[in-house]
Known about the structure:
By secondary structure, the chain is α/β, with parallel strands linked by helices. It has 2 domains: about 1-10 and about 260-375, Aspartate Aminotransferase, domain 1, CATH 3.90.1150.10; about 15-260, Aspartate Aminotransferase, domain 2 (3-Layer(aba) Sandwich), CATH 3.40.640.10. About 45% of the residues lie in helices and about 15% in strands. The protein has helices spanning about 15-30, 45-55, 70-85, 100-105, 125-130, 155-165, 190-200, 230-240, 245-260, 260-285, 310-320, 350-375; strands spanning about 1-5, 65-70, 90-95, 110-115, 115, 120, 135-140, 170-175, 205-210, 220-225, 290-295, 300-305, 325, 325-330, 340-345. The strands form 4 sheets. The chain has a 7-stranded mixed beta sheet, with helices on both faces. Helix 6 (about 155-165) links the parallel strand 7 and strand 8. The protein is globular, with a radius of gyration of 21 Å.
Amino acid sequence: MIxxxxxxPAPDLIDTEGLEAATFRAVESARNATYQYGxxxxxxxxxxxxxxxxxxxxxxxxxxxxxxxxxxxxxxxxVARAFLDEGDSVLVEEPxxxxxxxxxxxxxxxxxxxxxxxxxxxxTRLESLVANNRIKLMYLVPNFSNPTGTTLRLxxxxxxxxxxxxxxxxxxxxxxxxxxxxxxxHVASLFEIAEQSxxxxxxxxxxxxxxxxxxxxxxxxxxxxPESYFHSLCRAKQSMDLHSSTLSQYTAGYYLKSGRxxxxxxxxxxxxxxxRDALIKAISExxxxxxxxxxxxxxxxxxxxxxxxxxxSLVLQQALSHHVMFVPGKYFYCEIPxxxxxxxxxSTITPSLADEAVKRLAIAIQRTEQRETQG
Length: 375
């Protein structure tokens, strides 16, 4: 089976040698502390390393105001528990990250959608939603979004921050892919824009993770909330798991301290760009008119739509019988889904596998069209 489905880092690109060395150093240096209960907010050693990386990216964060979480997924859950009451509303892009929708639904919140991509945001709809609903949060993945791969432009980011300040809405900026840019120029984070352009330090909660850049098995992410909310988020985390794995934290801390991550990021970006281009090339050769694509500047995903209006779920049924899989786009919608949309992940496939995957996908599309015609 060739998978274009999973949003996971390439197993062959994980720095196992560096992580093994960091784990050994963690056990040798920290000794008993590595196996002991830790601080709810996270080990200071790791928070200092995260803070250093954040400053290099234009995000000012003191170690004492960084909350280490068990992956960015837990950070989302903590924010939802701390901010949302039953019946509150959350603004989300559509389509958006499926697991975020699940978190907000579990919190009893109502998700209200707006459209946003590299070309702009429908601010008229946003103003209408605010006028008729009690909105607590706005959730965005501004860099190489999951599932669409799009990146929000700087002018749109600035307008969003101004909008949130004017309507007293907290922005949740989910940024697991920001380090994986291989085309174009860096765009300032919403967190940075709020602080630098609007002198606001209480409008954006920044979330990120080591899962896409170091190793998902560490189960480590972090959250940088406004200082006034830090302790309430800590209490929410404490009620969930007391603290994230101490061994994982020391391993991640020593890995960052080793300086290997920057080199690894360059390798990842080069590889993912190559794999993205290979998948696009295969689609242009084998499916020149069948699939309309959004080409991302980074991250792990291509977002597409079957040009002939085929239902992606029906295509998937045929694709599985030809040993290739992908994710139908309908799962990333809150309201009326685009049944022809599809997410294709390229992070784990080599160029040769990309070509074979698209050949199989072409057969699946042909079989689906035949069934629809006979239908």
